């Protein structure tokens, strides 16, 4: 008889001061103050606080080609902020910050899969879910969630990993990086039409393993639940061994970049439902990584709701 693995009742949080050194132009929504708002949301929660290590090149190269990484390294400015495109900027500390996000999610996957914690939240920036295989875009340099999923598959030998994305913008980068990966099921809800213009229901992946849930502007939490509830039941039937969350909070009703009109209670409800699937399939193992969220007060409240549910479900 195989002994049941006992996972400690804890939620870890990975962060690093380097992530505040990714600078953007004045007035840009993806700003260092987002991390201060995240910390306000995390205050008082029962978390195991850990420093995000630097990401390994091998982890990045599972999703991005060496030529792309070399191009980013060559682009790092010495004393100014440069634009990689009209939305995506790089400062002297940006690549180091992005490497912390990669290292944070891989360390979180290691910790959760080794039994060191039930769940984890990676409070790093820049976000990642718009970064395509060889293109930085939408504030993002590396596909953090996709890299975490591939780390779980290739380093830990998992065969079924889910990536769930509730950022208000479609994770075109995650979809691009995992388009042909049959071992990963991707589910994304997002406002449509909206940047980046992808995420139609017809975009199914090479193996039909991608499920897009486009939502109308102003549709609110009720529409969110109608879309996610059956999707989570399908996910439960598939039986993931780990769930990775792209946790964007820009679907909040106060966010300036979109208009889905969710509340903190909606983020809490969806997180609790994801945790329930994880409890039934994979001993509650969930790793979440920060994506969007640009109204600072709404971001703090939404992070508190999301990570609070992770912590409650880890008890």
Note down, in words, how this protein is organized.
The protein is α/β, with parallel strands linked by helices and 315 residues long. The chain has helices spanning 33-42, 57-61, 66-75, 94-113, 144-156, 172-177, 220-238, 264-281, 296-313; strands at residues 11-15, 47-51, 82-83, 89-90, 119-122, 161-165, 184-191, 210-215, 242-247, 286-290. An 8-stranded parallel β-sheet has the order 2-1-5-10-9-6-7-8, with helices on both faces. The model has no long low-confidence stretch (mean pLDDT 96).
Radius of gyration: 18 Å
Number of helices: 9
Per DSSP E runs of 2 or more residues, the count of β-strands stands at 10
Helix/strand/pairing category: alpha/beta
Helix content range of the residues, please? 25-40%
Terminal CA distance: 26 Å
Task: Specify the overall morphology.
Answer: globular
Largest sheet: 8 strands, parallel
Share of β-strand residues: 15-25%
> Low-confidence parts lasting 5 or more residues at pLDDT below 50?
none
Order of helices and strands: EHEHHEEHEHEHEEHEHEH
- The largest sheet has its strands arranged as 2-1-5-10-9-6-7-8
Mean pLDDT: 96
List keywords for this structure.
315 residues; 9 helices
């Amino acid at each position: 008889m195989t002994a049941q693995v006992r996972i400690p009742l804890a939620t870890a949080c990975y962060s690093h001061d380097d992530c505040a050194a990714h600078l953007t132009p004045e007035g840009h929504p993806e700003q260092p103050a987002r991390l201060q708002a995240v910390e306000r949301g995390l205050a008082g929660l029962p978390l195991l606080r850990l420093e995000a290590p630097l990401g390994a090149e091998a982890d990045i190269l599972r999703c991005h080609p060496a030529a792309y990484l070399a191009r980013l390294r060559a682009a790092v400015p010495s004393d100014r902020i440069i634009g990689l495109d009209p939305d995506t900027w790089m400062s002297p500390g940006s690549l180091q910050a992005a490497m912390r996000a990669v290292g944070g999610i891989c360390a979180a996957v290691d910790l959760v899969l080794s039994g060191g914690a039930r769940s984890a939240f990676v409070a790093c920036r820049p976000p990642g879910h718009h970064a395509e295989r060889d293109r930085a875009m939408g504030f993002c340099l590396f596909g953090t969630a996709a890299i975490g999923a591939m780390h779980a598959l290739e380093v830990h030998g998992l065969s079924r990993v889910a990536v769930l994305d509730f950022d208000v913008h479609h994770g075109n980068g995650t979809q691009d990086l995992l388009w042909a990966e049959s071992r990963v099921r991707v589910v994304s809800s997002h406002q449509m039409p909206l940047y980046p213009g992808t995420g139609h229901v017809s975009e199914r992946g090479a193996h039909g393993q991608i499920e897009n849930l486009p939502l109308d502007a102003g549709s609110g939490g009720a529409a969110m639940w109608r879309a996610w509830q059956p999707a989570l039941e399908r996910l439960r039937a598939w039986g993931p061994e780990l769930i990775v969350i792209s946790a964007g909070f820009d679907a909040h009703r106060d966010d300036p970049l979109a208009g889905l009109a969710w509340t903190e209670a909606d983020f809490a409800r969806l997180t609790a439902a994801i945790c329930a699937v994880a409890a039934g399939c994979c001993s509650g193992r969930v790793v979440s990584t920060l994506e969007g969220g640009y109204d600072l007060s709404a971001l703090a409240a939404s992070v508190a709701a999301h990570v609070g549910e992770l912590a409650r479900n880890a008890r």
